[in-house]
């Protein structure tokens, strides 16, 4: 792989940036790795970067080498509270594209007020893991098309983004759905990590404002509460007023925020 040499202050060893793999770069100083850079292609084709460096000069050198080798646009995500890292990326030419709030969502119905949130007449809730894949995939396609026609599907969490060509990987074991008549009309996707994360909640546009989303949340959060889980995480784009109102209306609190930055 190619290497780039950077001069250091008088008396200090030079920093050598080497692309050690197709998507990995190392910064080496005096035979020590003092920084690492990685590039990953997300399901929608966008390339996201990460850099871990001992100090700002090495960050800049890694960034220069990576940006010279990779096609634009390029993206990265940082914790908004990490001002130093945000400044590092801005120094490399990145600008803020969007902000995503991270909410801590209580599961206790007494805290959420969802104990009485029943689905509307004619709508039933299909528990997590029990949805049929074919109608779930059809609902996902319809919702994706509706979102794409408005805010754009790229505003959704990364794990639900489609792969090139429009295909989307679906794992029915992570979805709870709302069914009406012979079709699915709404869904919630929950990632079962140590503290469960709500990655997506969506209802078909023709079924909005009927209480379906609240009923789905009531079912999912209630199930988590019965399992002894006190809270879940949810990520909400700051421009999504409906989702913000939904989560803040059930007692969720903003715990942190992430910034997505882009270099075009």
Word description of this protein:
The protein has a 13-stranded mixed β-sheet, sandwiched between helices. With 264 residues, the chain is an alpha+beta fold. Helix 5 links the parallel strand 11 (197-203) and strand 12. The chain contains six helices and 13 strands. It is elongated, with a radius of gyration of 22 Å. Residues 158-163 have low confidence and may be disordered. 25% of the residues lie in helices and 36% in strands.
Count of domains? 2
Spatial strand order of the main sheet: 1-2-3-4-5-6-13-7-12-11-10-9-8
Question: Biggest sheet: strands, sense, closure?
Answer: 13 strands, mixed
Rg, rounded, reads: 22 Å
Class by SSE composition: alpha+beta
Instruction: Please trace the helix and strand order, writing H or E for each element.
Output: EEEEEHEHEHEHEEEHEHE
**Poorly predicted regions:** 158-163
Task: Let me know the CATH homologous superfamily of the largest domain.
Answer: Gcn5-related N-acetyltransferase (GNAT)
CATH class value of the largest domain: Alpha Beta
The geometry reads as: elongated
The CATH topology of the largest domain comes to: Aminopeptidase
How many H/I helical runs? 6
CATH architecture of the largest domain: 3-Layer(aba) Sandwich
Number of strands: 13
Give the terminus-to-terminus CA distance.
26 Å
């Amino acid at each position: 792989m190619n290497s780039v040499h950077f001069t250091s202050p008088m008396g200090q060893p030079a920093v050598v940036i080497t692309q050690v793999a197709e998507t990995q770069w190392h910064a080496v100083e005096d035979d020590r790795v003092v920084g690492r850079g990685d590039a990953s292609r997300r399901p929608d084709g966008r390339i996201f970067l990460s850099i871990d460096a001992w100090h700002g000069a090495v960050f800049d050198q890694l960034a220069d080498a990576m940006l010279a080798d990779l096609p634009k646009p390029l993206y990265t995500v940082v914790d908004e509270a990490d001002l130093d890292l945000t400044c590092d990326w801005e120094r490399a030419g990145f600008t803020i594209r969007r902000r995503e709030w991270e909410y801590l969502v209580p599961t206790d119905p007494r805290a959420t007020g969802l104990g009485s949130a029943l689905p509307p007449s004619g709508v039933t809730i299909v528990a997590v893991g029990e949805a049929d894949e074919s109608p779930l995939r059809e609902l996902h396609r319809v919702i994706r098309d509706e979102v794409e026609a408005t805010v754009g599907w790229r505003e959704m969490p990364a794990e639900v983004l489609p792969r090139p060509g429009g295909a989307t990987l679906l794992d029915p074991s992570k979805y709870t759905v709302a069914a009406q008549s012979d079709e699915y009309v709404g869904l919630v996707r929950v990632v079962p990590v140590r503290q469960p994360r709500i990655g997506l909640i969506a209802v078909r546009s023709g079924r909005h404002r009927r209480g379906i989303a609240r009923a789905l949340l009531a079912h999912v959060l209630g199930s988590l509460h019965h399992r002894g889980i006190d809270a879940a995480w949810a990520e909400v784009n700051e421009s999504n007023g409906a989702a913000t109102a939904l989560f803040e209306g059930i007692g969720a609190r903003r715990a942190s925020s992430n910034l997505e930055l882009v270099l075009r």
